[in-house]
Amino acid sequence: MPEGQTIIEQLEQIQQSALRALEMVQDEAALQEWRVAHLGRHSSVMQIFSHLSEVPKEERPRIGQRANQVKQALEAALEARAKQLKRLALERSLTSERLDVTLPGRQPVRGRLHPTTQTLRKIYSIFADMGFQIYRSRDVETDEYNFELLNIPAYHPARDMWDTFHTTRPGVILRTHTSPGQIHAMREFAPEPVRVILPGMCYRYEQISARSEIQFNQVEVLAVGRKITFSDMKGTLNDFARRMFGAQARTRLRPSYFPFTEPSAEMDVECFVCGGKGCQICKGSGWLEIMGCGMVHPIVLQNGGYDPRQYSGFAAGMGPERITLLLHRIEDIRYFWANDVRFLTQF
Amino acid sequence: MKVPLSWLKDYVDIDMPLHEIARALTMLGLEVDEVRLVGLPMPVQEQHEFRFTGLSWETDKIVVAQINEVMPHPNADRLVLCRLYDGTQELVILTGAPNLYPYKGQGALEKPLKVAYAREGAKIYDGHQPGQVLTTLKRTKIRGFESFSMVCSEKELGISDEHEGVIILDDDAPTGMPLVDYMGDAVFDISILPNMIRNACIVGVARELAALTNKPLRKPKRTQPMDGPSIEGQVAIQITDSNLNPRFVVGLLRGAVPRPSPYWVQRRLRLAGMRPINSIVDATNYVMLELGEPLHAFDYDVLVKRADGKAPTIITRAAKQGEVLTTLDGIERKLDDFTILVCDTAGALSLAGVMGGLESEVTEQTRNVLLEGATWNFINTRRTVAAQKLSSEAAYRFARGIHPALALEGVELGLDRMAAWSGGQIAAGFVDAYPKPAVDPVVTLSEADVQRHLGIALSAKQIAALLRRLEFECTVNGSVVLAKTPPHRLDIGSDVVGQADLIEEIARHYGYDVIPETRLSDSLPPQRGNPLLDREEQLRDTLVNLGLQEIVTYRLTAPEREARLLEVANAPYVELANPIAPERRVLRRSLLASVLEVAERNSRLSDRLALFEIGPVFLPVAEKALPVEQARLAIVLSGERNPAAWDRSAGEPYDFYDLKGILEALFDALHINPVEYLPIEHSYYHPGKCARICAGETTFGVFGELHPLVKERYEFGSAPVLAAELDLSSILDLMPERYETRAVPVFPPVLEDIAVVVDENVPAERVRAVIQQAGGKLLTEIRLFDIFRGSQIGAGKKSMAYSLTYQAPDRTMTDQEAAQVRQRIIRRLEQELGAKIRSQ
Ligand SMILES: [Zn+2]
Questions:
Q1: pLDDT of residue B210
Q2: Distance CA B289, CA B294 (A)
Q3: Which H or E run includes B722?
Q4: CA-wise closest residue to B502 among B475, B462, B472, B476
């Protein structure tokens, strides 16, 4: 049996060579091998434990203590190395698993609303905030509702303003504007106040071209009550314009003519393409025409069941396709009903 | 309406720059589309609110010059040399203007010719190129003669298209003066609103500007004496129907000689868009443009001849149906009974207010002119214009209504201009038939009325002042104004309508831009909302969320287009009397047909199509004037369910169950249940791949795969086309106002799978229903996860594997309980469907 001192020296060597070997370990498998070799049952340090009985009695505590220290030191080193290796492995994997982030993603299939619907909804929501409810009426109308009750008698010069599709049934036409809805709504609600918008498809006898269509949506605005003024109209429509075209939008009202309103006006918004300097879109004027409006004509009020001496009101009409066209610089109005997916998927 | 600034200035002082005039006019309702510069400088401004076109004449380069002598060119017949003085020097210039040939070789001219002269470097339009092409005058050699400047035509100066000869100015033009100072101009192109025909004349526009700027209006005045032998006894007038012809005035000019009008008259007419003819015709057109009253000049001698040498009688009457007249455009016209005619005892002379007749027309030989100013029923004029497809400046005005007072004023001014430019002597007096004098409405308007409609507080005095500027005669009575309509406008009504008319005039001249902005303060109406539209929008959103693209199609189609789908040739349609094109001549009966057309057009552009539309179809009803407008929902799916991408190849094409899944998800989202899908045979669907959709008793839609033979009529690819058409109002009706939810279970479920072997022809729904019935409330979920067919289970059989979830709301179910339910299910499946249960 060797001397106690020799064993102590042996332990020093064991520790040093084991730690040196640990430094060489580069992966999990080698780590396991090292653990078996240096901390396993047959390892040098464990051998010293098992042969401790052979050491003189008085030396045992010192050697036992020292062997324990070596064992603990090796275990701690193992743990540290294991952690270090794990971190290295993670780092390796992080650097190797690099994606090409510029490859296209997997897009879920997305449906879309037709651009007109999108604009209609904006219009609905702005007017809803101002207390206007939505009233719809039919596409096929009588001459009476489309014209006569709106103060446009037969052969009136104003009839030139609408190129009408007539059906083969006399007196039955395709509505040229949503204004017949004014009469329907007033007759339904009189004598209550009215605050409605009237959306719907309208039809005009026109050659189809980049600028004109035979069918188009219109949204009409109608407010009737006991104290509704031109200045209310101005405020309401300006509020609308600022929400539709941006808080900075400048507008102007200029006199115009419609048989069913008086005074009548055309509302222009400052061209947002050129900022009012004049361009192709605004035909050099710096202004874009966006709606016609006016105070409801006394005869129309009367036809709707309201006494024009006590009631007044305003009406306005706008084209959602035209608004969409201006907002998105669409060059051809035929895109709307052509429904080419290459157009629709841009919205 | 084209309004030259120089002409406007005859009647009102204007000191605003051009763009401000254009803005002022526009803000009065006289919308300026364009300002064409005819010499005046281009306005410099930050913001061009208006489109300015045309040519500015440089002060130092384009001047009035005088030609002192016209000399032949030694070796060119078509060229002449002119000795020209431009105010600083005399030079010889070369020109080919044919209207200078007559002066050739006369030696020094007794009266020099005043011309528009452009010096070297001047920018003018190229006279030899079509349209308006700018060019700069450069030094060149023509036929050995050095040319560097020129005498200009109207085309070269941008006055008109005229390039037949050079401009010969009136004699008073000061030699050496910059041409722009002498006759520089700008033309405002104004859109005249239908109710503003009174402003389709220079005086009308001037009146508006005068009122706006509070300056006096200088009305046109007579300058020639009216002292010839009286017109009395020279002509008689008979008006048959005063409703058709409220007034007819004539005057007589004797001894006139038609000749070219003075240059300034010709230029004005051209700037206003009319062609100068001769001094007589020009006078009628000039006064029409000036005053707004169309005039008609007859050759008086022709009328006398037609009356066999006696004094002619003019008769106005409605045409007889089918009566014929040759108008001065040489066209023989068949007339309707609403057309008004001016006749004499020998027959029809002209289409009243629309166009003259050929025979009595003024010619170069005319010496005595009978000038007509009249008023015609605007409706009859409109109908004649439409029936004869004939328009004219006169008809345009009469079809909108011209005040009878203008008839007399017009004839008086017309004779005056005619005499001034053609010579002759104006007969004293007029023959004036005025059986139906105009009644100019007097309207009562209070301060309160103005406040109530415009939201501005104006005193009666202010109201009266505004209206007076527009020539209303006003009396103020406390807070009330009595306004008498001036005798040049027919657009003012009486009573409440008249009030609205006056309020418009007040608003216009007060300024739309000055009226304040306020928010509605009137009480809100009852809030009803629009539940149907809300539901429709919810439906749209759901379909979009399910990956479908909304489309909006033409509601106009043709029966043969729909027949590709419907196969029905003689269904009743709402038909147009005046279609724009044969392929858009009826209102559609099928929404699906419209959507399929769009799908067809897009099928080559897109691997995957999933489209829907919500919109009406139009179904005529025999006894009713108006058709039923039935709202529908149509869906079309075709192509790849999952189009190929860099990491995957294309998947399977859409099939029946994709469309059914969309419908199920839709009804689930809208909380419509239960919905049943039952097999049905339908003309345009595959007989084995088609179902109707029912809720209770109602069938509210059909869907399926398009019949292969129907699909062949379209240009689709090989993939099947899935289609659905549903009745929208049924869907909206089925959507519950509210729905309830279930509590989230707290006790664990028991899960198990069961495989049921049944005959091939047993529908899945039947199996599910039996399982559900037998399972009762404890069976909370049935999920079909596999269908298997094979020799192991025998021919004509299928094995359907379900995953079942048992769950009690109030306790943890034991395996024993679950087994009991399972046994019940198996027993019922065996009894009712003859099913066999496959062991797991
Ligand atoms: Zn612009």
A1: 97
A2: 8
A3: strand B721-727
A4: B472
Residue B536 neighbours by CB under 8 Å, 6+ apart:
B614, B631, B728, B732
- Distance in Å, CA B747 to ligand 1 centroid: 67
Rounded to a whole number of angstroms, the distance from the CA of A263 to the nearest CA of chain B is: 4
The Cα B194–Cα B386 span in angstroms is: 17
Judge residue B59's burial from the number of C-beta atoms within 10 Å of its C-beta, 0-12 exposed, 13-18 middle, 19 or more buried: middle
One-letter amino acid of B607: D
- Which residue is associated with the tokens 């249960």? B837
Instruction: Report chain B's mean pLDDT, rounded to a whole number.
Output: 94
Write down the pTM of the prediction: 0.89
Note whether A286 contacts B28, CB cutoff 8 Å. no
Q: How far is A290 from chain B (nearest CA, A)?
A: 15
Please judge whether B578 and A205 are an interchain contact, meaning their C-beta atoms are less than 8 angstroms apart. Answer: yes
Q: Say how many CB pairs under 8 Å bridge A and B.
A: 271
Q: Which residues pair with B69 in a beta bridge?
A: B83, B108
CA distance to B183, B208, B276, B414, per residue, from B5 (Å) = 11, 14, 19, 22
Distance A284 CA to ligand 1 centre (A): 6
Tell me which amino acid residue B302 is: V
Q: pLDDT per residue over B98-128, tens digit each?
A: 999 999 888 899 999 999 999 999 999 998 8
Nearest to A285 among B50, B196, B453 (CB): B50
Task: Answer with the residue of higher pLDDT: A6 or B740.
Answer: B740
The alpha helices in chain A, defined as continuous H runs, are 4-24, 28-39, 44-50, 60-96, 115-129, 143-146, 180-189, 230-245, 298-304, 320-328, 335-338, 341-344
CA distances from B33 to B190, B191, B298 (A): 6, 7, 36
pLDDT of residue B409: 97
Q: Who among B503, B556, B618 is closest to A214 (CB)?
A: B556
Residue B806 has pLDDT above 90, yes or no: yes
User: What pLDDT, on the 0 to 100 scale, is given for residue B588?
Assistant: 97
